[in-house]
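Action item from last meeting closed. Structure (130 res):
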């Protein structure tokens, strides 16, 4: 069963959504948990890391994902996703097109954490200078 948690990497708090090895029903519940956690944060403040390695999905789950990702858009500053297979890449591209979100695909969770950290650092610098 997947989970949603707040993790810290080099001082950056991020929402980690672990959907690895979930079936469609489990993943739908985790996405609803993810929505609740992300939307409890301030708008334009969330750094999100998602693991979909070995996820099993169906058309109903894809609809849920699109709805959640779109509704989370105002809250998410940056997002990365790990675990894309050939099949999930197709689903991922349809989510991106539908939601207009910019979600960065990475090859490992460590790479995702580091990418989000660098985005956060850059945003901190811009805020200090602005």
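Sequence:
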């Amino acid at each position: 069963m997947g989970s949603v948690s707040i993790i810290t990497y080099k001082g950056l708090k991020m929402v980690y959504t672990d959907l690895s090895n979930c079936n469609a029903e489990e993943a739908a519940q985790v996405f609803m948990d993810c929505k609740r956690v992300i939307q409890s944060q301030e708008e334009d403040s969330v750094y999100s890391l998602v693991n979909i390695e070995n996820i099993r999905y169906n058309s109903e789950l894809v609809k849920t994902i699109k709805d959640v990702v779109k509704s989370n858009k105002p809250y998410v500053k940056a997002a990365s996703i790990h675990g894309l297979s050939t099949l999930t890449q197709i689903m991922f591209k349809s989510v991106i097109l539908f939601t207009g979100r910019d979600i960065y695909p990475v090859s490992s969770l460590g790479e995702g954490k580091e990418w989000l950290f660098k985005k956060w650092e850059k945003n901190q610098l811009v805020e200090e200078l602005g």
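Note appended to the action item: The helical segments are 24-38, 59-72, 86-99, 109-129.
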